[in-house]
Amino acid sequence: MTRNLSVRPDRIAADIEALAEITDPDRPWTRRAFTPRFLQGRAWVDRAFRAAGLETRIDAAGNLIGRRAGRREGLGTIVVGSHTDTVPDGGRYDGIAGVVAGLEIARALADRGIALDHDLEVIDCLAEEVSIFGVSCIGSRAAAGVLPAAWLERSAESITLAEGIASVGGDPGVLESAKRDDISAFLELHIEQGPVLEREKLDVGIVTAIAGITRIEVEVAGRADHAGTTPMDARADALVAAAGIVLAVREIAIDLAGRGDGHFAATVGEFSIEPGAANVVPSSARLLIDARAEARGLMETFLEALSARCRTAETPGIIVGPPRVLSDNPPTPSDPALLDEITAACDGLDVRHRRMASGAGHDMAWFARIAPAAMVFVPCRGGRSHAPDEWADSDAIALGAEVLLETILRLDRRASNGGTTWDAS
Q1: 213 partner at 20 to 30 Å CA-CA among 111, 231, 357, 390?
Q2: How far apart, in whole angstroms, are the C-alpha atoms of residue 129 and residue 9?
Q3: CA-to-CA distance for 359 and 258, rounded, in angstroms?
Q4: What was the pLDDT predicted at 417?
Q5: Alpha-carbon dihedral of residues 358, 407, 368, 381, nearest 10 degrees?
Q6: What letter would DSSP give residue 321?
Q7: d(CA 207, CA 343)
Q8: Spatial separation of the C-alpha atoms in residues 348 and 8, rounded to whole Å
Q9: 69/77 Cα distance (integer angstroms)
């Protein structure tokens, strides 16, 4: 379908290609936060923001902000944001597409001579990906006022996080000044990082929630024996019992995901056995489970079912410890009124869409603590992400950006007509 868009796919493609060229040699596409390569990318983004007519600054947390002043005071700021740091060998589009979409929205407004009543900002959030300090979403956590002060002393590669923030232009000494209280709406575009939109031949996913993430440890104790001389019916093999729990995790997760109550996924991502010798029956095993749920009730059901399976996995000589929750982050729902505005924008533009949860974490989850927030997904080839072959068509990104542009215009018109930008109830 030929579309007459305000945003330009060719500019989006050129922007993404320019950033892709700023990568560690022989490691496409790597631009990790707090590295010289990241600073090169940031300098490019700053220049692009300025060329689009945005006033730029770096806040105390190291977020790069491009601002377009509105015509009226007191309405707050509409923010489009994501990140430009990458995982190692990670891809051209994860985060980058969202920042470039915000940049292109600013250009499109200028091209059309549209002056918003709201202030508009495009934010490149610092270190959304897990950084060298072992933590993620540093910039968006600070914007929400929830970056732990103790994290500033975390060290890696001979520097502290405080020094890392300073190295990108932030000021960790006044970190609290990065907390925002003026945002009327936060919007983020991101590649889906999954195959659903491509498989269903849809243009846009409207993200209903960021799934909560719970990490759970299960330990199994058995008895070490000689692998050649101990009869099969006389063993207390910890690995055999643990394997049954792994299969149970998958079985429970498939059941919960198929109920239609929201997104659910569970993965045994770490697995270890002792003593780890080919001629010894394993004496112990440890599983680390990553479980993600759109609705809290799904996670509670999973934990109950997992606990029951662990109890039934005990046999003579096998002891299975109860599942131990190591970390537990609840789901972050999107703002319902913003979801309705995005849906209306899709309908008005004849964009094929569906509502869906995000199984991955994003900066939006932290901005949602302080402001109405929502996301849109655009398809990526094969659902691939965090890999060198990550790819999204510029036309697809442009269509997602056009949806956000129309959403922004709708929010701005509502406030200009005397309404609120969102339903605060």
Answers
A1: 390
A2: 26
A3: 15
A4: 78
A5: 20
A6: P
A7: 11
A8: 19
A9: 9
Other residues' Cβ atoms within 10 Å of the Cβ of residue 328: 13
Q: Are 370 and 10 in contact (CB under 8 A)?
A: no
Name which of 271, 60, 63, 228 is nearest 149 in CA terms.
60
Contact between 262 and 357 under an 8 Å Cβ cutoff? The reply is yes
> Please, what are the domains in the chain?
9-210+331-416 (3.40.630.10), 212-329 (3.30.70.360)
Q: Which pairing describes strands 77-82 and 183-191: parallel, antiparallel, or unpaired?
A: parallel
Strand partners, 123: 65, 81
> Would you mind telling me the total number of residues written for the chain in this entry?
425
**pLDDT score at 3:** 79
Contact, 109 vs 56, CB < 8 A?
A: no
| Distance of alpha carbon 282 from alpha carbon 288, whole angstroms | 17
Beta carbons within 10 angstroms of residue 174's beta carbon? 11
Identify the DSSP state of 59: -
Helix or strand run (H / E) with residue 292 = strand 284-293
Tokens of 264: 């659910």
Residues of the chain with pLDDT below 50 are 421-425
Q: What's the rounded Cα separation, in Å, for the pair 387 and 389?
A: 5
Cα distances (angstroms) measured from residue 389 to each of 91, 100, 174: 7, 19, 40
Spatial CB neighbours of 300, under 8 Å, sequence gap ≥ 6:
none
Which DSSP symbol is given to 181?
A: S
Q: How many Å apart are CA 2 and CA 4, to the nearest integer?
A: 7
Measure the CA–CA gap between 93 and 380, rounded to whole angstroms: 9
Q: Going by C-beta distance under 8 Å and a sequence separation of 6 or more, which residues neighbour residue 8? A: 104, 107, 108, 398
* Residue 190 bridge partners (DSSP): 377
Contacts (Cβ under 8 Å, ≥6 apart) of 177: 59, 60, 171
Query: How far apart are the C-alpha atoms of 381 and 176, rounded to whole Å?
Result: 40
Q: Where do we find the tokens 């051209």? A: 92
The residue among 377, 399, 380, 393 whose CA lies nearest residue 7 is 399
Count the neighbouring beta carbons within 10 Å of the beta carbon of residue 364.
25
- DSSP result, 374-392: EEEEE--GGG--SSTT---
Task: Report how far Cα 212 is from the mean position of its chain's Cα atoms.
Answer: 11
H or E element in which residue 184 lies: strand 183-191
